[in-house]
Amino acid sequence: MNYETRVTADGSEPFESDLRGVDETQRSAMRKRIIIAGIILAVLAAIAFGLFAKYGSTGLAAGDEEAQLPVVTVVAPGRTTVEGTIGATGTLAARRELPIGVVGEGGRVVSVPVEAGQWVRAGQVLASIDRSVQSQQVQSAAAQIDVARADAQLAQANLERAQKLVERGFVSQADIDRLTATRDAARARVQVTQAQYRELGARNARLNIVAPAAGLLLERNVDPGAVVSPGSGVLFRIAKGGEMELLARVGEGELGQLSVGVQAEVVPVGTDKTFTGQVWQLAPTINPQDRQGTARIALSYAPELRPGGFANATIRSGTVVAPLLPESAVLSDDEGSFVYIVGNEDKIVRRPIVVGSVTPDGIVIEDGLRGTERVVLRAGGFLNAGETIKPVLQKD
């Protein structure tokens, strides 16, 4: 019986039994598969040997280890001259508000010819009070003046007649003195009644509630028929000249950077209009509760500026020279604002900073940076202090 024997390199015959009963084509295909498998195993063994020889027992090589470091974009901000601004919020109010109440004895209001929102002139009647009783008193005082004048004229005539008779001895000097005193008293009574008449006239004039100055009528708190008195409180409020102001609340540190006369831009809530004013007064005191002071910003009249409303202000505080960073580079947590800078050996270092004003070009860093540091531009939230990175400087 004939059969073919295949001998391997080590002299064994591993395939002899497997190939029995198999035709030549099948035996040839099987041999090819075995050869291919052997080649693949040899290649894998060679790769494993090479890796072991390259890295040994210490892991990645130094060059590849550097390749595995995170690539982080950094920026050297330098120092930039920035127009200093201070943001503040506050309440709108009349710059000079005039509260108006009853200055006379009061009474029943008969007419109120004005409405809130109207412009009034100085001396214009805002409300009239019934004066029927006072009018009768004025008439009585006018009659008393006539009586006093008549008495004074009679006393003067009696004195003149007596002076003509004193030379003939019919009237004594004592009678002349008495008649002179009577004449003087009558004249004095005329002046008294005239003063009383003027007083009543002045009292009646005070029954009209008038505007002490020209301006915008802000409030009307009385209607016809109401009974008012000096204790009725404020009946009208006027913004003198229609001038307004913003009572801007700023921190005590920022308050020290401001001065009277600097410009400010005010945007009332509910509108996109911007109004330009200027600081005309800085508060001499600081609120001990919130450590803030008030900067009073004068504004010209505009319908959108309603006293009691809320507004935002941007106040110019001069120029500063400081580093300017994009918003993405500035981080914050419970300890305050900070940035990550690249230190020695390209390790991340946390640097506390003091943030200043926000400009269209970035955030002003008032303290904490010189401007020569390499600051992490983005992805700071994914880094930790002490971590080694591969910095890439951003070019302008």
Automatic annotation (TrEMBL):
<keyword id="KW-1133">Transmembrane helix</keyword>
<protein>
    <submittedName>
        <fullName>Efflux RND transporter periplasmic adaptor subunit</fullName>
    </submittedName>
</protein>
<dbReference type="InterPro" id="IPR006143">
    <property type="entry name" value="RND_pump_MFP"/>
</dbReference>
<feature type="domain" description="CusB-like beta-barrel">
    <location>
        <begin position="248"/>
        <end position="317"/>
    </location>
</feature>
<dbReference type="InterPro" id="IPR058627">
    <property type="entry name" value="MdtA-like_C"/>
</dbReference>
<feature type="region of interest" description="Disordered">
    <location>
        <begin position="1"/>
        <end position="20"/>
    </location>
</feature>
<feature type="coiled-coil region">
    <location>
        <begin position="145"/>
        <end position="196"/>
    </location>
</feature>
<dbReference type="Pfam" id="PF25967">
    <property type="entry name" value="RND-MFP_C"/>
</dbReference>
<dbReference type="InterPro" id="IPR058647">
    <property type="entry name" value="BSH_CzcB-like"/>
</dbReference>
<keyword id="KW-0175">Coiled coil</keyword>
<keyword id="KW-0812">Transmembrane</keyword>
<dbReference type="GO" id="GO:0015562">
    <property type="term" value="F:efflux transmembrane transporter activity"/>
</dbReference>
<keyword id="KW-0472">Membrane</keyword>
<dbReference type="InterPro" id="IPR058792">
    <property type="entry name" value="Beta-barrel_RND_2"/>
</dbReference>
<feature type="domain" description="CzcB-like barrel-sandwich hybrid">
    <location>
        <begin position="106"/>
        <end position="239"/>
    </location>
</feature>
<feature type="transmembrane region" description="Helical">
    <location>
        <begin position="34"/>
        <end position="53"/>
    </location>
</feature>
<dbReference type="Pfam" id="PF25954">
    <property type="entry name" value="Beta-barrel_RND_2"/>
</dbReference>
<dbReference type="GO" id="GO:1990281">
    <property type="term" value="C:efflux pump complex"/>
</dbReference>
<dbReference type="Pfam" id="PF25973">
    <property type="entry name" value="BSH_CzcB"/>
</dbReference>
<feature type="domain" description="Multidrug resistance protein MdtA-like C-terminal permuted SH3">
    <location>
        <begin position="324"/>
        <end position="377"/>
    </location>
</feature>
<comment type="similarity">
    <text>Belongs to the membrane fusion protein (MFP) (TC 8.A.1) family.</text>
</comment>
